[in-house]
């Protein structure tokens, strides 16, 4: 793996860990009582990442990449704001710097946030992609491979 990919991967992991921590910290501070704090500390990151992953921008055509970038910047920005409002100004600023560095390196390196092509639709429903291979499936030990 080229060095730039390792750097972007490290930045992505750092950014996502900081987002989870910020959302959990916000949930803990916003919750009433110990049980409420624990529930919100677990629920806030789950909801945040659930929304992040639930939206499929691949169907947006040429706007898909831009929409995904806006979504990710909004989530990073909300997490940075959570750190900042909790009095953790340095952590909020660090998250902003890591996020900008990550997105900058992704695009400067010719990468994209959306890694796969849009899923084709047939009659309003998703079509299952055809899987083709030139090799026969392996049935187990002693299998000669080829038609039966």
Structure commentary:
It contains four helices and two strands; from the N terminus they run ααααββ. The protein has one domain (3-117). With 148 residues, the chain is mainly α. The model is unreliable at 131-141 (pLDDT under 50). 17% of the residues are buried.
Mean pLDDT: 80
Low-confidence parts, pLDDT < 50 over ≥5 residues? 131-141
Number of strands: 2
Strand content: under 5%
Number of helices: 4
Outline: globular
Whole-number tally of structural domains: 1
Main-sheet strand order equals 1-2
- The H/E string reads HHHHEE
How do the helices and strands line up, and which of them pair or pack?
Elements: H1 3-30, H2 33-54, H3 64-85, H4 89-108, E1 121-122, E2 125-126
Antiparallel strand pairs: 1-2
Brief write-up:
The chain is mainly α. The chain has helices at residues 3-30, 33-54, 64-85, 89-108, and strands spanning 121-122, 125-126. A hairpin with a 2-residue loop joins β1 (121-122) and β2 (125-126).
Question: What key phrases describe this protein's structure?
Answer:
single chain; 148 residues; mainly alpha; two-stranded antiparallel ribbon; 62% helix; 3% strand; globular
């Amino acid at each position: 793996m080229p060095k730039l990919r390792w750097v972007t991967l490290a930045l992505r992991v750092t950014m996502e860990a900081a987002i989870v921590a910020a959302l959990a910290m916000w949930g803990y501070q916003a919750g009433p009582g110990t049980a409420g704090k624990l529930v919100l500390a677990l629920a806030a990151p789950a909801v945040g990442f659930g929304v992040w992953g639930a939206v499929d921008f691949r169907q947006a055509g040429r706007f898909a990449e831009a929409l995904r970038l806006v979504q990710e910047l909004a989530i990073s920005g909300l997490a940075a704001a959570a750190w900042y409002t909790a009095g953790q100004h340095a952590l909020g600023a660090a998250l902003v710097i890591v996020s900008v560095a990550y997105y900058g390196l992704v695009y400067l390196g010719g990468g994209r946030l959306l890694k796969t092509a849009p899923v084709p639709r047939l009659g309003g429903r998703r079509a299952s992609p055809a899987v083709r291979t030139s090799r026969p499936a392996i049935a187990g030990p002693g299998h000669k491979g080829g038609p039966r």
